[in-house]
Amino acid sequence: MDPISGNLSSAVRGLVGERVDVIDEQALLQALNSTPVMEGRKQDLWADDAVLRRWAREHGGSGEATELDRLRQARDLLQAATYGPVPEADMRRVFTGVHRLPEVDASGLRWRLTGPPERMLAVELVLAWFDVQERRPGRLRPCGNDECRLFLLDRSRANTARWCSMKTCGNRLKARRHQERARREPGT
């Protein structure tokens, strides 16, 4: 058995490299973007148990109440970690009771992630976040609009995407800057 302990980044790196994607990049973004700002107010789309239960079941979860609580906690933790430093103590708590077990058969060696069932989907969500951080460093980030609470995964070659959506945040901020310039420089 390989309990998750010690150095967080190396322990997680070992899990990420051996996993089968239960939570892909799209699902990770859905989770991170489940607290949008609508009409100037922060909303929590996962506050509705039915919505989160549907999401959990679509991604292999049971939809049980404890699992939903763990998913909300993991989402909040990952949002905080995307804005700033990784809260290592909180991350360690997500992995409480989680282990890697070797499985050997005719096709070779594979590592299976095991742990309390109510934690596993939240663990997969956190592992997906670490996987993106490792494979696409600096590309998962908050929208450049300070009034927006969404996140983006920049897939552009130049890594210059700034907004969750050019249609909404990008155009809004560009129009605002243009209006500010026009006010400062009358007659242009």
> What's the mean pLDDT score?
85
Helix content: 40-55%
Question: What is the percentage of strand-forming residues?
Answer: 5-15%
What global shape is seen? elongated
Give the biggest beta sheet. 3 strands, antiparallel
Question: What count of domains describes the coordinates?
Answer: 1
Q: From the alpha carbons, calculate the radius of gyration and give it in angstroms.
A: 20 Å
Strand order of the largest sheet: 1-4-5
Count the strands?
7
Uncertain parts: 1-6
Assembly level: single chain
| Secondary-structure-derived class | alpha+beta
Keywords:
single chain, 188 residues, alpha+beta, 7 strands, 48% helix, elongated, disordered N terminus
Description:
There is one protein chain. This protein has 188 residues and is an alpha+beta fold. It has one domain. Helices cover 48% and strands 14% of the residues. It has seven helices and seven strands. The strands form three sheets. It has a three-stranded antiparallel sheet with strand order 1-4-5, with no helix packed on it. A two-stranded antiparallel sheet has the order 2-3. The relative contact order is 0.15. The N terminus is likely disordered.
